[in-house]
Design a protein that fits this description.
alpha+beta, three-stranded antiparallel beta sheet, five-stranded mixed beta barrel, 17 helices, 8 strands
């Protein structure tokens, strides 16, 4: 097993090799430029460039749906175990329990696992991090050791609500973090999927059911009551169709940290637009709530507003399981022609499509966000933390007292400025 110093050097050199590859490879270089243009990203400094290209390298997918790291792994001669570790790296929130000379003993908020995290910079550079503070970080595991690749934010111990919201957001983008280093939680998720699958087919007698966003919250509630043996509701009056299928850019899907809680609790019915939404049961991964599923299917039947954007989203998004793509391929004879036309590819088999667009699902253990949230104590506690946060903000605070937001500043120099 390599020493910590050797591992840190290998990780750093591998990152440098990948960055050089992105800059020199014609396909990746063009894709990176498209990424900047599509997201209206302007680079104003070398630091901006480094941050953006690292995010692109670790988190983004290319225009054809393949992850940048996966493309590098398949096309580079410098492939090593670090690439696999980088692909499995993830961002989350960790509560610092103890500060060691070269590491933090911390708890992963999403899984509850106790970890020893070794930063890739000297501890003296991280003096602002105190015991019981929360660090928002990307970690990488190599030979059983967890390393901190980057720390994005430090949240005060007095602001658990903010830390919880951040952790849940990361958990939804990477459901595996819900049971990282916690096999008991993984077993709970596996059993939850089996239970959902059994009850879903008994209730709906199908793999999926489609309604509109105005009715889907009630439909989910009806299914939950049936699943928990509370009540069996006739759901037929909760099924309705949209007047016209079209793919829309829904503003609420792109909510920031401040609006995440409101939208998570408010549900789909609070959205201004009306669009189709499906409950999709994947027997190995869990229950998915999929906006525009019917619209996606209609894209193979004729011209739909937003057709190309819809197909690209369904093929490349990690929020859509492979089972949806398999269903579409079996149902529509023009599947490959349509997909290749949109993605500018030459796929000939379903395996080739999934290998290039759904690579993150190839590994087992990727569960649906619905089942992850349903079994998350963190999400259950979020409502209570929200109420506590609101009561703090309404409590009378002296001008020279610590600000209740947890910033560490006096109230008059923080929230009390206004």
């Amino acid at each position: 097993m390599p020493s910590v110093v050797d591992s840190l050097n290998i990780i750093s050199s591998t990152m440098e090799n990948i960055l050089d590859f992105v800059a020199q490879d014609e396909t990746l270089s063009k894709d990176f430029q498209q990424y900047l243009e599509v997201n209206n990203i302007e680079i104003e400094s070398e630091r901006d460039f480094n941050n953006i290209i690292i995010e692109y390298m670790l988190d983004m997918k290319m225009q054809n749906g393949l992850r940048v790291l996966e493309y590098y792994r398949r096309n580079s001669k410098n492939y090593n175990d670090i690439i696999d570790a980088l692909q499995n790296s993830f961002c989350c929130v960790f509560k610092v329990e103890k500060i060691l000379s070269n590491a933090y003993e911390a708890i992963c908020l999403t899984s509850g696992a106790k970890l020893t995290l070794i930063p890739m910079v000297k501890m003296t550079h991280l003096k602002q991090i105190g015991k019981y503070d929360y660090i928002v970080a990307r970690i990488l595991e190599l030979s059983g050791v967890q390393y901190i690749l980057e720390i994005y934010d430090v949240i005060s111990e007095y602001n658990p609500y903010k830390a919880t919201v951040q952790a849940i957001r990361y958990m939804l983008s990477n459901p595996k973090s819900a049971y990282y280093k916690n096999p008991e939680k993984k077993e709970i998720l596996e059993n939850s999927v089996k239970d959902f699958d059994d009850k879903f087919h008994k209730y709906f007698n199908n793999d999926f059911i489609i309604t509109t966003n105005k009715k889907v919250d009630l439909l989910i509630e009806a299914f939950n009551k049936y699943r928990e043996n509370i009540e069996t509701i006739d759901y037929k009056n909760l099924i309705e169709q949209v007047e016209e299928n079209k793919y829309l850019n829904i503003e609420e899907f792109n909510c920031n940290d401040e609006t995440f809680m409101q939208n998570a609790v408010g549900g789909f019915s609070s959205h201004k637009e009306t669009y189709d939404v499906a409950l999709w049961m994947d027997g190995s991964r869990g229950l998915y709530i999929i906006p525009f599923l019917e619209t996606f299917f209609k894209c193979f039947e004729g011209d739909i507003e937003g057709k190309d954007e819809c197909i690209k989203e369904f093929l490349t998004s990690d929020k859509i399981p492979p089972s949806v793509i398999k269903y579409a391929q079996n149902k529509y004879g023009n599947f490959f022609e349509t997909v290749n036309n949109v993605l500018k590819t030459n796929f000939e088999t379903l395996e080739e499509v999934l290998f290039n667009t759904k690579a993150s699902f190839i590994d087992s253990g990727v569960y649906s966000p619905v089942n992850v949230l349903f079994n998350s104590e963190l999400f259950s506690n979020l409502i209570g933390l929200k109420n506590e946060e609101e009561s703090k903000s309404h409590k009378q605070v002296g001008r020279n007292e610590p600000c209740p937001c947890g910033s560490g500043l006096k109230y008059k120099n923080c929230c009390g400025k206004n």
